[in-house]
Design brief:
single chain, mainly beta, seven-stranded mixed beta sheet, 18 strands, 41% strand
């Protein structure tokens, strides 16, 4: 069975140092009742009511668990498309103004220890320039190269293996153990919302300059460069 985690946005907190075997993605909860959508063989499955990612900068481990219950920690596989299509902060900001991530403000951090990362929904985007001081529009826009608006994280499971989104307290936000028998493919979409644009693109960045950029209408992911 193939399990695909679909990231609709997020702050990709890539550490360029050697030896890191995981990837963190910062997320904010949506205003809706649930923060994930689940599809089994393209049919939407209703998740448990009020499935929320959590707040307070909590961590959710995205785990690939083998049949012997060992968690795979082999490191992520960055596809060519992921490396080339992810929006860089330097795509928007001058070198002197490139902001750092404010990691502590995210509602939660999704931590991936494995999986193949690929880009999806690749297209040009337009960003509006806003003043940091009062969020007013400067009248300037900036267009990007084609960038990924979704990122797919793929897992191919053998018999007895599972993928789960596990909270710190050991409970599961979602697990492939809940999937119906005979299912060939599962998609778990971690949702975002246009109302969170300012959270991702202002609140979660420590701005050095006088302006920041907001996408219209939905936020694509960024990496840490």
């Amino acid at each position: 069975m193939r399990v695909t985690i679909i990231l609709d946005t997020g702050g990709f907190l890539l550490d360029q140092s050697t030896g890191q075997t995981y990837l963190d993605v910062g997320y904010f909860q949506t205003p809706g009742a649930a923060d994930i959508e689940v599809y089994e063989d393209s049919n939407q499955i209703q998740p448990p009511p009020n499935v929320k990612l959590g707040d307070g900068n909590t961590r959710i481990d995205v785990q690939h668990v083998e049949a012997d219950r060992t968690t795979v920690k082999s490191g992520i596989d960055r596809s060519t498309s992921f490396n080339s299509d992810l929006l860089l902060k330097s795509d928007l900001y001058a070198l002197a103004d490139v902001p750092d991530f404010n990691v502590t403000v995210y509602d939660c951090i999704l931590r991936f220890y494995s999986g193949t990362f690929e880009s999806a929904d690749v297209r040009n985007r337009s960003f509006k320039e806003q003043r940091v001081s009062d969020d007013s529009y400067t009248g300037n826009n900036k267009s990007t190269r084609p960038i990924a608006n979704d990122v797919l994280v793929q897992y191919d499971l053998s018999n007895g293996e599972i993928v789960r989104l596990r909270r710190k307290d050991g409970t599961d936000l979602w697990s492939s153990e809940s999937v119906g028998s005979g299912t060939n493919s599962v998609e778990v979409k971690v949702l975002s919302d246009a109302s969170l644009n300012s959270s991702y693109h202002k609140k979660a960045l420590n701005h050095r300059g006088t302006c920041y950029y907001l996408p219209n209408p939905d936020p694509p992911p960024m990496d840490s460069q």
